[in-house]
Design brief:
This protein starts with 16 loop residues before the first strand and ends with a helix. Helix content is 32%, strand content 18%. The strands form two sheets. It has a seven-stranded mixed sheet with strand order 4-3-2-5-6-9-7. A two-stranded antiparallel ribbon has the order 1-8.
């Protein structure tokens, strides 16, 4: 008789396996996958969400870095013809290779390790044109940064870049006891839905996301200082005023549209 496959959570991979049945049900209900959809699960672990997704999605790809988890996933799900495992790093993975003409855009799901959450989201922002939506379990503070509004201490570059491209919503909080091993922080489920061009009031003209990132990073370099001080080597006071923005304001008071206006003005100065 074959021995059951056992896997102990590894700290170097930031593994905390979800086991709470009620939380799992809430996540699956929030995703509401259908047979017409292509789901991509990042970091499936032992398959707590996978076992539900594989029965509802039309196609399911999972990306798992820990090669010791692959045999566990194969044993549980390889009988499903629409299920595929990719033993890859989600930070390096080319998501465009999963696109098929008959499955449409990708829906991404994942219990993301805290140590890669922010860089992974930036990587995925480069792929929003092929993504329908994303449901991620993240550290609660990270979700609060993603969804933060102006005049909040958590509002910053991450908030601006994500919310320019996506509608971001905190769905619900997940307590530490829902995981094994138990993390020291609360988690939360966030839904990120890419915006189409018509849903953006202000657009980047002759500018790219990296330009918006550059302006936001400079503006928040010292949060207590004004735009006049933080941007003085990049944009003049006159140029800030031309954007109908008071140079005496702090970055955390600006709306995303105001950051877009500053970015457009900055790029314009580079082109003239």
């Amino acid at each position: 008789m074959a021995k059951p496959l056992v896997h102990k959570a590894r700290k170097r991979f930031g593994q905390n396996f979800l086991h709470d049945a009620n939380i799992i049900e809430r996540i699956i209900s929030s995703i509401a996958a259908t047979e017409a959809q292509h789901i991509v699960e990042i970091g499936p672990g032992k398959g707590a969400l996978t076992e539900h997704l594989v029965n509802t999605a039309g196609k399911l790809d999972v990306i798992e870095l820990d090669r010791d988890l692959i045999p566990i996933l194969e044993k549980r799900f390889s009988a499903y013809k629409h299920f595929n495992i990719h033993n890859n790093d989600a930070l390096q993975f080319d998501y465009s290779t999963l696109i098929e003409s008959n499955t449409g855009k990708l829906r991404l799901v994942g219990n993301l390790p805290y140590n890669i959450a922010t860089p992974l989201i930036f990587h995925l922002l480069d792929n929003v044109s092929i993504i329908e939506d994303m449901h991620f379990m993240l550290q609660k503070e990270v979700v609060e940064r993603l969804t933060a509004s102006p005049n909040s201490k958590l509002y910053g570059r991450l908030s601006i870049l994500v919310q320019y491209l996506c509608h971001a919503e905190l769905l619900f909080i997940v307590p530490p006891g829902a995981f094994n091993p138990v993390p020291k922080v609360n988690s939360a489920i966030v839904q990120l839905t890419p915006r189409n061009e018509s849903q953006k009031e202000e657009l980047l003209y002759n500018a790219e996301l990296k330009d918006l990132s550059f302006i936001a990073k400079a503006a928040f370099a010292q949060r207590r200082k004004t735009l006049r001080n933080n941007l003085k080597k990049i944009i003049t006071e006159e140029q800030i005023t031309q954007c109908k923005i008071d140079p005496g304001r702090r970055a955390e008071t600006l709306t995303i549209n105001e950051f877009l206006a500053l970015t457009n003005r900055y790029v314009q100065t580079l082109l003239t």
